[in-house]
Design a protein that fits this description.
The chain is of the alpha/beta class. The chain contains 10 helices and 6 strands, in the order βαααααβαβααβαββα. A 6-stranded parallel beta sheet has the order 3-2-1-4-5-6, with helices on both faces.
Length: 236
C-alpha cells in the first residue's frame, strides 16, 4: 500500500448512519408538530413509509428525472398521505426543520470511525456525495470525521450527480488521483458501484442487505471487513 492511492467514500448509508439519524430527527419533529396533525402519527409507521418514498425519489433524482426540490417536497406530502394526513402550510416548515436539523445528528455506521482511522494512514481519503454541500459538510463536521478527508465533493460542486462518470472524474482531478489507483466505497449499486466502475475506478460494494451485485465487484456486509476487501478490490 502507498499513500499515492486514493479511496473515496459515499457518505449517507455508508459512513453516516442515515437511518438512525433520520429516524431520530423525524421522531422529534413528529412530537413537536403533533398539535398540527389532523390524526395521530405513529413514528415507526411514518418512517417506514418515508424511507421507501425517499429512496424512490432519490433514485429518480439520480436518473435526472426530477430535481432536488421535487425530492424535498414530494417525500413529505407522499409520506403523510400514506397515513391519511392531508397537506397543510405546516408541512413546508416541517420539511425545512428536518433539512436543517438532521445533518447535525452525529451517528455513524458501526465501525466507520475506526476504519477511517486505519485507512487514513495508508491512503488519501475523500468523499463523493450526491447530497448538497450545505448538508454534507455539516454531517461530516458533527460526526467528528472531517479530519480524515483530503477533499469532499458534493453534487452542487460537481454539477453532475452519481452515477455520471463526470462526477467521479471531477473528484479525482481535484486530488490528483488516477482511476487506476483510485477506489470507491458505497452502498448503492447503480450510483456508487456501477458509476465508479464505469469511471475506471476500483469498487467495493458496502452491501449489508445483500442486494444483487451483477458486476461481481468485491462486497462487504460490515465496514470492519473493508481493509481486507480493499486489497482484493484493486482493478488490474
Amino acid at each position: 500500500m502507498t499513500s499515492k492511492r486514493h479511496i473515496f467514500f459515499d457518505l449517507d448509508h455508508t459512513l453516516w448512519d442515515f437511518e438512525r439519524n433520520a429516524r431520530e430527527c423525524i421522531g422529534e419533529l413528529l412530537e413537536e408538530y403533533q398539535s398540527l396533525l389532523s390524526l395521530p402519527c405513529d413514528p415507526d409507521r411514518f418512517f417506514a413509509s418515508y424511507s421507501l418514498i425517499n429512496r424512490e425519489l432519490w433514485d429518480a433524482y439520480e436518473r435526472r428525472e426530477i430535481d432536488m426540490e421535487a425530492v424535498r417536497r414530494g417525500r413529505w406530502h407522499r409520506a403523510f398521505a400514506e397515513l391519511d394526513i392531508p397537506p397543510g402550510e405546516w408541512m413546508e416548515t416541517f420539511g425545512k426543520d428536518y433539512v436543517e436539523r438532521c445533518p447535525h445528528k452525529p451517528h455513524l455506521m458501526d465501525g466507520a470511525k475506526q476504519i477511517l482511522e486505519t485507512l487514513s494512514s495508508d491512503f488519501v481519503l475523500g468523499i463523493i456525495s450526491n447530497g448538497l454541500s450545505s448538508n454534507q459538510f455539516t454531517k461530516i463536521e458533527n460526526a467528528g470525521i472531517a479530519h480524515f478527508f483530503q477533499d469532499v465533493v458534493t453534487v452542487d460542486m460537481a454539477g453532475h450527480p452519481k452515477p455520471d462518470a463526470r462526477m467521479f472524474h471531477f473528484a479525482m482531478e481535484r486530488l490528483g488521483a488516477h482511476p487506476h489507483t483510485a477506489m470507491y466505497v458505497g452502498d448503492t449499486y447503480e450510483s456508487d458501484v456501477k458509476g465508479s466502475w464505469q469511471a475506471g475506478m476500483s469498487s467495493v460494494y458496502f452491501n449489508p442487505h445483500r442486494q444483487p451485485n451483477p458486476l461481481g465487484v468485491v462486497e462487504i456486509q460490515h465496514l470492519n471487513d473493508l481493509p481486507e476487501a480493499v486489497m482484493r478490490a484493486w482493478r488490474t
